[in-house]
Design a protein that fits this description.
The protein is of the alpha+beta class. The chain is built from three helices and eight strands; from the N terminus they run H-H-E-E-E-E-H-E-E-E-E. It has one domain (22-146): Roll (Nuclear Transport Factor 2, Chain: A), CATH 3.10.450. It has helices spanning 2-18, 24-33, 84-93; strands at 38-44, 48-55, 58-65, 70-77, 98-108, 114-123, 127-133, 139-146. Strand 6 (114-123) and strand 7 (127-133) form a beta hairpin. It is elongated. Residues 8-18 have low confidence and may be disordered.
Length: 149
Amino acid sequence: MKKFIFILASLFISFSLLARDPDETLIKTFSSSFPKAEQVHWYEMPKAWVVNFVADGIRSRIVYLKDGKATEFTRYYFEKDLPFVIRSKVKEAYPNKNIFGVIEVSILTETGTSQLAYHIKLEDEKSWLTVKSDNDGNLTVEEKYKKAQ
């Protein structure tokens, strides 16, 4: 049993020594962009760094390439933070459903263009519905599920 604990402790120490933080420049870039960020957690991926955090009460995630360029911004929030135009178009198209939550995804391409999409989870007593909206409020259904009765 002592050997097992020793091996397990050795592996844990080895893996913790291999864990790295992003370079100081990336941390400074993030900190200057989000000075009020809380609950900041960095994760390394093979070609990118991911930071999860909360800013102004909204859970967010940013993917930075290893060269420091941000490529994806994701925010998770509720109806009150959805832009008015999008919210009103959703309410008009689905008047009997409640907005349960929103995932906002902004992607920056290598050419410098950006794509913004809102994935809006709706519900009523019997079903779940996810609709996707662009910045102009054009809606498409992504998924539908019936709730268990």
